[in-house]
């Protein structure tokens, strides 16, 4: 049996298999999931990790033992699971550890309509009930139906972005041996795209590189292939393919803030005056561009549960995060890296400019990227920074400490799970950005271990 207190996080379940998460635990969670959500039926999908199929099967046994009917979608990306939950109007569970190493696995849970389940909305209760049910397996009372949802998922995404008039494009996609290798061929089928696939073989051991496009080292093969093939752009997906990173025709990374602004402008063309969500460490250019296109920007804390809750509250049509998560009202307020990729393909294919020129219009400032510092006393370090910058800009504490001046800003916030402070800085020019970044880091690291 795994340690439930350790593997249940704020937004999902994640741990090492089998030491922390095993089939007995998954079965107990399946039973608890049905009891706590009151689900009469549920949908389940899993990624390509060796442990994912057996863990999903164990969860299904637990759910059926409590009388729930189960639709088993088999292999899928996380956004395919959201599609299943939304289109079937069922609560769902995705077995994946996203970009984590091969020895990990986990669960992402949602209620019907892809509404996320987090620590504040039922995950704690599921954890506690699962702890009581470990080993208490019962005979299956609910039915089991296997259902292939890939074609429906691909078709639905294609209804949300008009790609009918795009010019032929050369595209390199690095799936990192993750679920993008499963979903991209289905979604791209019939489009005027010359596809160069990298690492499309489903392999949960990740033999080529980690399926985490936020790490620059994991983009090098994609960048090289874009240049070698003369491609118009490159796309990199994480392990469960819910995040997408974009590389332009020069092999240069495109900031997720620029993608957020680009997609926001496209959504506002369809929905004039709509609300757009952005978290507080996306570029200052995002709310500027939203306003210029007649939209209403709303700033939130970092984290998908905050984004989704604020989108539901405001009816926002779109939301973007610095981590390459993109959320869509027309996709049940859920995130889909694939849907964001289709918007980029449409924006590029509707005209003749190269991608670097297209996204250049949405890239206005110079950003540091996220810089982590190991700190033994986070509060003390934050206080020192606050004292140093208190009279140099506007301060707010929506999420950590944000200091804003006319030509620069930074946010410094603590990790929820590690002794880290995370710094993001941005300025109108590179020199100022580096100066602000260096000054904050010098203060932070004086009290670091």
Automatic annotation (TrEMBL):
Belongs to the phosphohexose mutase family. Its cofactor is Mg(2+). Its EC number is 5.4.2.8. Pfam families: PGM_PMM_I, PGM_PMM_II, PGM_PMM_III, PGM_PMM_IV. This is Phosphomannomutase. GO terms for molecular function: metal ion binding; phosphomannomutase activity. Residues 370-441 form the Alpha-D-phosphohexomutase C-terminal domain. Residues 6-126, 153-251, 259-364 form the Alpha-D-phosphohexomutase alpha/beta/alpha domain. GO terms for biological process: carbohydrate metabolic process. Keywords: Isomerase, Magnesium, Metal-binding, Phosphoprotein. The lineage of its organism: Bacteria, Bacillati, Actinomycetota, Actinomycetes, Streptosporangiales. It is an enzyme of class 5 (isomerase). It comes from the Bacteria.
